[in-house]
Design brief:
The chain contains nine helices and five strands. The longest helix is centred in the middle third of the chain and has 15 residues. The termini are close together. The relative contact order is 0.20. 59% of the residues lie in helices and 14% in strands.
């Protein structure tokens, strides 16, 4: 199975690249953000809990995210593979994902790291907030989210380098070129 971790700061293009990868490779896309937003919209207890963390620009607790992802993954019976978008965000989550996949006879194929300068990220997210009305795409929350990314999430780069799975991609410029670079990185590993 083709299991991809797509990685990058908020606004780096993970969702855009994931959509293109789903179309090209016929794999499933698990976006923790989409899963959580759906729970919030439904008004479930999970959604209410998640909303509190999201509004503060904080990460959802590991055990909660791992349980959610295991359930989603187990419901994808005939999948050719999965893109994990928004997970893992910490080394503990990466270790838990590795264990969860190993229990299913699988592993992460590659970690795609979309690198984008912070000024471009800020502009993208503010624009997205204007277009979609997402409450977490405002300047104050974006700054908090980027700080969380740099302090808690960025150390995953070294963890995946040690696993031999990391591949850095320039995540700004021409969309088609970014996608070609992503596909080339995947096909080297698969």
């Amino acid at each position: 199975m083709l299991n991809i971790v797509i990685f990058g700061a908020p606004g780096s293009g993970k969702g855009t690249q994931s959509e293109l990868l789903v179309n090209k490779y016929g794999i499933n896309h698990i976006s923790t953000g989409d899963v959580l937003r759906a729970e919030i919209k439904k008004g479930t207890q999970l959604g209410k809990t998640a909303q509190g963390y999201i509004e503060q620009g904080q990460l959802i607790p590991d055990d909660l995210m791992i349980d959610i992802l295991a359930d989603v993954l187990d419901n994808l019976k005939e999948s050719k593979g999965v893109i994990f978008d928004g997970f893992p965000r910490t080394i503990a989550q990466a270790e838990a994902l590795k264990q969860m996949l190993a229990e299913r006879g699988q592993d992460v194929t590659v970690m795609i790291d979309l690198e984008v300068p912070e000024d471009i990220l800020m502009a993208r997210l503010i624009n997205r907030g204007k277009q979609t009305g997402r409450a977490d795409d405002n300047e104050e929350t974006i700054k908090k989210r980027l700080n969380v990314y740099h302090t808690q999430t960025a150390p995953l780069v070294d963890w995946y380098k040690n696993e031999g799975k990391h591949h850095r991609i320039k995540g700004f410029g021409e969309l088609e070129q970014i996608f070609r670079d992503v596909c080339e990185a995947i096909e080297k590993r698969f």
